[in-house]
Amino acid sequence: RRRDVWLFNRQQLDDDLAVIELINQTAEEDISRAHTDFVANASHELRTPLASIIGYVETLLEGEPPATPEIRQKFLGTILNEANRLQGLVSDLMSLSRIEAEKHDRPQEIVLLKPLIEKASMDAAGLERQPRLDFQLDADPTVSGDPRQLEQLVRNLVDNALKYGDPAKPVTIALSTTDNQEAKLAVIDRGDGIAKEHLPHLTRRFYRTDPGRSRASGGTGLGLAIVKHIVERHAGRLDITSQQGQGSTFTVRIPLNEVSPENV
Ligand code: ADP
Question: What region holds the Histidine kinase domain (predicted)?
Answer without folding.
Answer: 41-258
